[in-house]
Amino acid sequence: MGSATKDDQALLLDAIREFARNELLEADRRWDEDETSVWEMMPAIAELGLLSLPLPEKFGGLECDMRTYASIIREIAYASPSTAVTVSVHSMVCKVLGMHATNAWKEKHYGHFGSHESFAAFAISEADAGSDVASTKTIGTKVDGGYRVTGSKMWITNGLHARWFLILCRTNPDGPRGTGLSAMIVDGVETGIERDKIHGKMGIRGSETVVLHLSDVFVPDENLLGQEGEGMKVCLGALDEGRIGIASQAAGIGEACLDEMISYADQRTQFDQPIACFQAIQEMVADGAVDLEAARLLIDRAAHLVDTGRKDPQASAMAKLFATEAANRIAYRAVQVHGGSGYVKECRVEQLFRDARITTIYEGTSEIQRLIIARHLIKDA
Asked: Looking at the domain 120-229, which fold is it?
């Protein structure tokens, strides 16, 4: 955080850990059961400062460094993976706005982003433009004083209650593939916006996910992020740091699974002894601990590079790839250790197993991370 000491950071982390485990853990179980939203907790989340983590101090934020931020997301995810991704996506949008929004826009709006009333969403994906962002079909037509935007966005996290949407649209429809795309911040109170909640998700059900329809929505010139035609650069740059957030979410899920696994192994008795005594169980616990520690170190390295001005897309991709795949391995082992009990919804590892699965998909699939890493290693890739 800005000028905060290590003691200040430790106190903040302790407060967030206590809040998450006391207030979010059981709520997250209910959101999963009912497919309801973390939104009910947003005023408390904002009051704790979790929506202002990346905001500069001059705008009322905590100006959190990336290593501290990653630790915070991990603590939240331990109790509520849905809340972790909610905070992570909002924070990612805040970082983009800090780097690319016009001064005119920031003076009017940026200082409000620590409040749940200025909740933000990252609206890039479309039905036919997921990993292939260059296939974006949403159109931004230049008009007097701004743009008129029409199109649909898919899988939009935070989309149900978001006030602001960071979108990517095609401002030069006749340009070559991958060009003519611009990034903008759309005010959710404008007319022509429709939000359709996506139901039936496998996991992170407390996280809002919508299809966003934009019909002739007006976006003022001052809401353009960067220069017209630089949208790919703006959005893909944001994902480098966003991937550290998702890696941290995955590490929090993995840590929760590991703790559940160890606790159950100590309590469950078979053949007149705790199953923790059996070598097969010990091996699963050990493998989980190694996976988790390696994930933490990769996340810490990627975050350190950001904090020291040496942001590295390869490091972020490595952290995201390993941490998310590791979380799925640890969750698998946690269910295995629990046996039949781990296969029913009353057992938390059943939910964590489902929650972990999405981490290898959103904000860049594992396959995309491997592609990024390979392109940094192979000259002609």
From this structure: Butyryl-CoA Dehydrogenase, subunit A; domain 2 (2.40.110)
The residues annotated with a catalytic role in the active site are 363
Are the C-beta atoms of residues 78 and 248 closer than 8 Å to each other? no
Q: Is the dihedral of CA 301, 303, 304, 310 positive or negative?
A: positive
pLDDT in tens, 111-167: 999 999 999 999 999 999 888 888 899 999 999 999 999 999 999 999 999 999 999
Pick one of 1.10.8.100, 1.20.1290.10, 1.10.60.10, 1.20.140.10 as the CATH number of 233-377: 1.20.140.10
- DSSP β-ladder status, 164-170 and 120-123: parallel
CA distance 118 to 83: 16
- Taking only the tens place, the pLDDT of each residue in 25-78 is 999 999 999 999 999 999 999 999 999 999 999 999 999 999 999 999 999 999
Distance of alpha carbon 46 from the chain centroid: 17
